[in-house]
Structure to design on (334 residues):
């Protein structure tokens, strides 16, 4: 049976869900990448090999190793053409390496679903597909708007069957996926994907930058990486103390929530009242959900919202393979 993999290479972290037979695996690591360099400590040098990959003849550290050893600030991912960079390639190859280390079978020939920000999907789908084929030539690779991931998570069960709780031909849903670099939108009316409702606006990066400025007023200087983490933990480590920064986080999130609502009104506003619900997903979803519910009370947080994109892609891949088997096809046929 072909292994199915949902890949979400975000700007702050990489989330992967793999499924095969009746087993599953989840992988999570920071989206940090730096050129590799010599590690003099023998024990550490052996450990970093698990997070070292080769791209175009150059070695790169990725994940925790890149963050700790290279002090990567994640700034490299804050650009629209990031998917064409060696850093993005390193994160993809690193994910495949981690899956193999977790004993996931047949990774090289898996069906892999990868996402793109909705606003960039049309212009980058072909180019990203070509880049991925170079990196994993034996795999079956498909690219789709990442905002569809949470919808597929709802539509299909963990074994790729249609959920009995959703009537795909009658129900209508919107998706708001709050990531680090972008917030992405999708609208599905009675099972039809509405092309003009795909779109993107700023993501959690904006809230992190606001938080940086807010903490400077209290004489705390934090990096973008630390500010991003503080949005989740709300606790600042400062010379042995742990300081609550919940108020600063709440203030930092307000401008982002307003931006997300404004963009949503443009894309899905006319349909919002008649929707069965609005799925709110992504790492930033829990922070903005209260503000979204003030406007749309039928907005709801997806299960394990940080993994919603990769989980949904994995379930879609399983459903696609189930369909092919029902038609007597396997692998890349059909």
């Amino acid at each position: 049976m072909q292994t199915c993999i949902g890949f979400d290479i975000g700007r702050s972290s990489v989330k992967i869900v793999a499924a095969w037979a009746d087993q599953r695996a989840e992988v999570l690591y920071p989206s940090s990448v730096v050129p590799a360099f010599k590690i003099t400590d023998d024990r550490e040098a052996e450990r970093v090999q698990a997070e070292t990959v080769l791209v175009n003849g150059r070695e790169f550290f990725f994940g925790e190793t890149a963050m700790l050893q290279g002090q990567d600030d994640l700034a490299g991912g804050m650009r629209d053409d990031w998917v064409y960079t060696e850093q993005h390639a390193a994160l993809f190859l690193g994910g495949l390496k981690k899956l193999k280390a977790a004993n996931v079978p047949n990774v090289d020939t898996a069906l892999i679903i990868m996402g793109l920000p909705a606003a960039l999907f049309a212009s980058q789908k072909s180019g990203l597909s070509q880049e991925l084929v170079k990196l994993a030539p034996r795999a079956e690779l498909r690219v789709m708007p990442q905002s569809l991931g949470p919808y597929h998570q709802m539509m299909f069960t963990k074994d790729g069957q249609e959920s009995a709780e959703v009537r795909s031909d009658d129900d209508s849903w919107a998706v708001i996926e709050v990531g680090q670099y972008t917030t992405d939108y999708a609208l599905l009316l009675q099972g039809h994907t509405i092309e003009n409702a795909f779109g993107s606006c700023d993501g959690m990066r904006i809230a992190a930058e606001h938080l940086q400025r807010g903490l400077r007023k209290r004489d705390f200087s934090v990096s973008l990486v630390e500010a991003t983490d503080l949005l989740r933990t709300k606790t600042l480590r400062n010379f042995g103390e742990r300081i609550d920064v919940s108020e600063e986080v709440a203030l930092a999130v307000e401008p982002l929530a307003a931006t997300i609502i404004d963009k949503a009104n443009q894309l899905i506003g006319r349909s919002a009242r008649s929707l069965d619900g609005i799925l709110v997903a992504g790492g930033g979803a829990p922070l903005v959900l209260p503000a979204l519910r003030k406007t749309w009370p039928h907005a709801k947080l997806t299960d394990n919202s940080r993994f919603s994109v990769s989980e949904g892609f994995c379930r879609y891949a399983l459903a696609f393979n189930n369909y092919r088997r029902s038609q007597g096809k396997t692998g890349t046929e059909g």
In short: The chain has ten helices and 16 strands. The radius of gyration is 20 Å. The longest strand covers residues 13-20.
